[in-house]
Amino acid sequence: MMPDCSPSRRPFCVMSNYEPLPVHDLQRLLWSHRRSTGHVNEVWPKLYLGDAFTAKDKSVLRQLGISHIVNAASGRYRINTGPEFYRDLNIDFYGVEADDHPYFDLSAYFFPVAQFIQVGLQAPNGTVLVHCAMGISRAASLVLAFLMISEGMSLVDALRSVGEHRDICPNPGFLEQLRQLDIKLEGKRRSRSK
What we know:
By secondary structure, the chain is an alpha/beta fold. It has a domain at 39-170: Protein-Tyrosine Phosphatase, Chain A, CATH 3.90.190.10. Helices cover 41% and strands 11% of the residues. It has helices spanning 23-32, 52-56, 58-64, 110-122, 138-151, 155-163, 172-193, and strands at 40-44, 47-50, 68-71, 92-95, 128-131. Strands 1-2-5-3-4 form a 5-stranded mixed β-sheet. Helix 1 (23-32) crosses helix 7 (172-193), helix 4 crosses helix 5 and helix 5 runs parallel beside helix 7 (172-193). It is globular and about 50 Å long. The termini are close together.
């Protein structure tokens, strides 16, 4: 049931439409909290965000205890790793053939990747690496989606949480897809609390 928001009732009207920050404000938030970013950073307990260099360095993967990897730039003409590449490390692998382009629909992978990360983190000694070429746009977007879906964070809270540990910069299209996810998840939260 919609609230009565007629002019005479406006002071008593509570709008239920949730609207996250627009993309340009989200970008400004990211740019105002820039920090040095190396090849890989732990951005959540047992969850690492990194680049292609880390994904291909098996000694670093062993050192970090990585048990699960999400390659957000998977495929023959991108970062060509996969289950065979990690066979000697006994790593579970999830590949996403994503383009770092504002028009690429990364949102189709938000829920499946969040589930894969959750399974990895719940596994005994589970530690997850999510990476793309540089670990700042595609992979970062998937980590943000995980935090929103599995940890109940808003988009702004997820951006701040990851930004404390790694310099990220999802492209504007991915930020808009994350905004839409934020709206959808907030709607579900509100309907459950009624």
